[in-house]
Amino acid sequence: LFLQQWYKLSRNDMCYLLGLTDMKWCHYTNPQHVQEPLGDPAVSLLVWVLAHYPETVFLPSFPTAAEVYPLYERLAEQGAQRSRGHGRDRPYLGRTMFSLLLGREIGSASRWLSETQPATIAPTVARLLLVLKTLLQNQGVAGLDEWVEQAQLEAQARGLSLHDKMTSWFRGDGEQKVSNPRPPVRRKPGTRKKPKKATPDAADDPTPAAE
Description:
Elements: H1 2-7, H2 11-18, H3 22-29, H4 41-52, H5 65-83, H6 95-101, H7 108-112, H8 123-157
Helix pairs in contact: 5-8
């Protein structure tokens, strides 16, 4: 546990680092066993060397959003200049699109890039940032264009459209959609529709609406 706290790693990362199954990790970290020597001497030696020689840690160092965004922004501007006049259907690649291209809602980038208190990035997104940075460094504008095209395909597969109005991968894309419209009610001749009971206006209703 000391090693995990020192390097600020998740349990999955620790299992990978030490080559353990989740069950074995739970056994070693159980309060009933923490004072005992580790059952596998190879694991014990691995913990020792990783604790005493940090340079031997072989997990990647995941970049922050602030480290990746300037590269993304520069390549996005270069790509926009190249695509002008060519009629390419390319969304505007700004901060909100940066969030969507990482599989999150549009407000995420602003929280990640906060100078005072940047938000914690989920482990999956941290790995995505790492490979995005590597792709952009190696492939430049072409790599960013491919990433955008793949994100567009992901959106289409979910019935969405990756454009400036899209706000989230889970709440729709800003387009008005009508699904399962109710058919008109047919009444028997001579019957009248009953009037609805009077209800207070929404402004007079003290119950807050669910968000």
